[in-house]
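Now for our specimen.

. . .
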Amino acid sequence: MPHYSDGTECKVGDQVTGKLFNSGDAPKAGVVISITPGAEFCNAMVQFTEARTVDVDAPDPAPPRMALSVEHAVARTVRGHQHGSSGPAFRLFTCADYTDTKNLTKVS
């Protein structure tokens, strides 16, 4: 099985942070949803949530490229203040991207 850079074995369901291949330069936090045993590179897939600011009076923004099921984007709209009852609106998209396990850090 693939391992993290510290030698710990990577497992599906692990909560992780790290650089993903197609999701920009900023590290992401998410959950390992797939592992490819025997592969040194591109051996894991991480699911994460991406937030996009929305104008409630405008059409929904296009889903991110890495959104799961882009045609029927898995998304919901939330508010950013007072436990979701006021403030700016955000559209949350469930996304997934590939990476190497050596790029990830397991979160305890």
Notes: The chain has a mean pLDDT of 86.
